[in-house]
């Protein structure tokens, strides 16, 4: 069944002369093609319409021939590839159609497998990747403008080899062996794309397919075993199985086997994977001041944070967390601010973790730093952000790309990088691991903090630039995946929303603070001990995918080596007169 049909309008066919009873003879003479009159044509059309199926009588219908003609057009095919690539974005917040992730790649797969050549399939992969990157990062358009499209086009190239692989394995009438290979190779190829684009210089791991399952408990259990990578691979495997079932029923056995294997693996993980072991609880408060822009915005924000924090006195808290850039001055340069924070800590009875976005007094440049303040003043614990947002906090190769500051809101001055992660002791034996902004998107950073002894993960963020987009909810959802991967609870504290907290299994704790809130939220955070398989073993699904692709490439090279060369044909036979012999003579 061709699901990529075009649109046509039904054309009636005039009926021939009547051959029925007396009334039929009269009708036939009026509708006969020999008469050629308009009345006859109209009557014939009406008669054909009455006998046509209902879907033809309703007007436009799907026409497979027309659809094939459209797909032969590079322009229409390219537009369809961009659209197909954008579909998976609907599985992420804010729509959060998590279930859609398991079929969202199917149209893209079917399109790439139908490509007439491998080169065209690679183009389909590139354009689909372009559509995916634009859809997942569309909220960057107001800030980076046309540069968003340029970055999406460049990163979309990562999917070109994947598109070629789709056609190579699923094109035409795939055998059972090719279909079975596709269930391993295509998810592995997708993981390689996610791995490469996860490099911070290319924008980081925002929009990894597995992250769309942040609220699905079985998927979070899988993340505790193999991280977000394992979830991504299984989602792509399900999509591949569905595409094989839709495109070629003769290969339905391996496709169904793939679906059964995914279900069996998920069930096995559910039964076998260790659960976090409860180890008491703590009380943490998040302070979210809301949007404070304009003249004096930094001071107004601090005053609002101070007011909200003061209201937490007597709440028996263990820690208070402020968002990213919550303090606009280095505390060593502003002892008055340090004194106010110290007084707040004494009044509330808990340490306060703030985030300073300012020039440091002891070294050159601007840093974003998590700073812990206790009842006796700053404790000396400080974490400087290590992974910076490209164009938002620094401009890569500024000498070449510095023009980006003139077409968007790229950083006018590069922030400086921190040197190492830090685990802080906030008293009562509690150790916390802070992350800043989109560092919560990197699985390896939270895993490292957990291995260093962090009992609670903290992310300080600010998405005020993208306040009315999907970005705040997408960012908050990442903390659920990090919590499940490490078996450690995580708190996501922002200036302007969305603020949230998650338990050691990734379960949501209490209410979110939305983007319209200027308030505090208190969370009872369950602590846990033990080590998840992912925290212990690391990114083993990525290495497995590399092995699968290496074996696939080696097998292809071996087949090419064993293939005999075509035999050279001798010269044509000659006749007695010296002319080539003719067949049959």
TrEMBL record:
Biased composition (Low complexity): 22-50
Highest taxon listed in the record's lineage: Bacteria
Record-annotated membrane-spanning stretches: 76-92, 146-167, 179-199, 219-246, 253-273
UniProt cross-references to SUPFAM superfamilies, sorted A to Z: Carbon-nitrogen hydrolase
GO cellular component, one term: plasma membrane
Enzyme Commission number(s): 2.3.1.269
Residue span(s) of domain CN hydrolase: 282-527
Membrane topology: Multi-pass membrane protein
Function as written in the Swiss-Prot or TrEMBL entry: Catalyzes the phospholipid dependent N-acylation of the N-terminal cysteine of apolipoprotein, the last step in lipoprotein maturation.
Record protein name field: Apolipoprotein N-acyltransferase
Lineage: Bacteria, Bacillati, Actinomycetota, Actinomycetes, Kitasatosporales
Gene designation per UniProt: lnt
